[in-house]
Amino acid sequence: MKIKTAAVIGAGTMGAAIAAQLANAGIPTLLLDIPLPDKPDRNFLAKAGIERAKAASPAAFMDPANAQLIRVGNLEDDLTKLAEADWIVEAVLEKLEVKRELWEKVERVAKPTAIISSNSSGIPMRLQVEGRSADFRRRFVGTHFFNPPRYLHLLEVIPTDDTAPEVVEAISRFGDQRLGKGIVVANDVPGFVANRIGVYGMIRTMQHMHAQGLTPDVVDVLTGPVLGRPKSASFRTADLSGLDIIYHVANDLQRVTPEDEDFTLPDFLVRLVEERQWLGDKTGQGFYKKVKEGGKSVILTLNLETFEYENKGKLRLAALEEIRNQPLPERIRALYALPGPEGEFLRAVMRDLFWYAAKMAGHVSGSIVDIDNALKWGFGWEMGPFETMDVLGADRVIQDLEAEGRALPAILEAMRAQGRTQFYSAAEVITPTGVIERYQAPYLILRDLKKDPEKVVVSRPGASLLDIGDGVLLLEFHSKMNSLGEDAIRLFDTAHKKVQELGYAGLVVGNQGENFSAGANLPLILMNAQNGDFDEIDLAIRQFQRATTSLRFSPHPTVVAPFNLTLGGGCEMALHADFVQASAETYMGLVEVGVGLIPGGGGTKELYLRMVDALLPGETLLPAVQKAFETIALAKVSTSAQHARKLGFLRDHDGITMNRDRLLEDAKRKVLELAVDYVQPQMRQDIPVMGADGIAAIKSALYGMVEGGYASEYDREVSLHVAHILCGGNITHRNARVSEQHLLDLEREAFLTLCGKRKTQERIAHMLKTGKPLRN
């Protein structure tokens, strides 16, 4: 059951976004919807769905050109085209009769090997296919995406009793490896896994807020990043999701769940939906409202007593200041012990979550790992409920739940009977029935690997060297934002020596943090510049250039595995690798000009080389200079790995991994592939450059930008340093050629010069303070 083509039925927000993600994966997709009687274009809804996906923010398409893989049609004229699809997924109205009528039509035209699935978030899968043939039911399965499908990792796969195991296996494998999803196999029960537990937690959070006399803004501070949850926390997430959606889902679950599962909506939410129709972002106001005050955007908070919006400014809770920068496990323990109404609220919310997740174990899924993953992948939590209980100690949680008079769910009874305090231990996990099973993730997880001291070759505070198996070493960054400080830079030399001395096949540079690397250690650069320690900066640049170029010119293959933010020095690492295996979600760019600097680790040189190598025979150098200059001077950052190819940060032969969890495994495989007949490259000595003529051309263009108000005088000064490097310096003779080392020396000189400029130091200081560039 290989999926090479797909069809999506329903071109609403969700259906169009699913089609876009299929196109992102390179799958030709048919998008169908009903024809509208008042529209002459019978494919109007499908076309509108694609246009909405193109305009979506955040972007649904990794590359706008991917939209070309989607054909449009309608369910009357083009129904028979479904026969071409290997996978047919519906995303139509959440009405049982509508879905049943659709499946009756689909069964008549779908090919006998096609997988059929529903994206329903609530209607039981088994009810949808009542009356369908045994063969159709065998190929039918639920596939519940989370919105937006490109960015939210979770895909719940929901088989019925009739679904064939090979269908579950095929759609799970495709969702994982081609669509980049984290797969959770859910039981066919109301709410499945993530929504069943997540919506329960959301409603109980609202109830406990009211009981403790707190307000939405206070709750969002308590339940956001400090608790390992997204910045949108609780009430901002509700606004983003749509209060009407929460209203309907909670009411539906209230009707079909036992009495002790309290999904009762608080009065203020009912009033917002039924009386005011303030549904969150879709209506411009919900628990929060964005307005303009004094020319600036201001977020107002709804007063739930008066139903008036108030400007409360940025809220900070003194009780959180001491703990917010601690590691997450320590923060969780501190929050659980917090005094006052905030602490009472957090303990009540957490205990509800623990009790309900334990109660649902075995009901919504046969695996607590799937429950934890569903909450992490579907709602962006750093830890699932069972992982969180492990932090506090399951024995303590059990004691607290019993003190409240709660009946313990079966898995907690089993934990107590066995004297266990942890759901997870080593490579074992407890099942909902209390049986201990071996567990191994289907991909490499560094935190588990590092528990084996034999796998840790070198460990430093900012970086480590790990044996990831099969004769491959990994250089991992783990500093704040994975900035490239002294630990990381010095470890490159050690890493290459270890590969050679110990007979490894090669080296991967990667990690499993939040971002690959945000670039250089700016605070250190600023401190040295302000102190006039330019010898230290010069030494640091030389070391960094030696580290980046070592990735290209070592006697063994090197593969860099970037993901998420890959900026400045992080981007320069990738540019020098023999091969890049990038996550599909990689936001890569040489952004140094934003702080008044230039890419000094070989990035300017390497990007120019790529542009030169892409020139057609007989083409002049000017287009290569212009493209490299624009990319660097405008600090362009890719919006995906596919976009990074267009900017020149990735080459056509570099790899893209859709599922970031598999990134290091894919990078390791590439090292082993390259190692078979690897030949050590040598530095180039004959790079063509334009010299003074190229600098003059860019200088002329910059003059127009300054005069037009598009750039400041200092922008021009910084940009001219970029031009100077790209053109090889002020060389006056035609057909000049220089070495890579010559361009590296020009980078180092420019970087040092700019570090000494007051306005560059102001830009660095402003970026560190505000996170935003300064245009001085």
TrEMBL record:
Its EC number is 1.1.1.35. It comes from the Bacteria. Residues 6-188 form the 3-hydroxyacyl-CoA dehydrogenase NAD binding domain. One of its GO terms (molecular function) is NAD+ binding. Residues 1-19 form the signal peptide. GO terms for biological process: fatty acid beta-oxidation. Pfam families: 3HCDH, 3HCDH_N, ECH_1. InterPro entries: 3-OHacyl-CoA_DH_NAD-bd (IPR006176), 3HC_DH_C (IPR006108), 6-PGluconate_DH-like_C_sf (IPR008927), ClpP/crotonase-like_dom_sf (IPR029045), Enoyl-CoA_hydra/iso (IPR001753), NAD(P)-bd_dom_sf (IPR036291). It catalyses: a (3S)-3-hydroxyacyl-CoA + NAD(+) = a 3-oxoacyl-CoA + NADH + H(+). Keywords: Fatty acid metabolism, Lipid degradation, Lipid metabolism, NAD, Oxidoreductase, Signal. CDD domains: crotonase-like (cd06558). This is 3-hydroxyacyl-CoA dehydrogenase. Pathway: Lipid metabolism; fatty acid beta-oxidation. Residues 191-289, 354-399 form the 3-hydroxyacyl-CoA dehydrogenase C-terminal domain. It comes from Deinobacterium chartae.
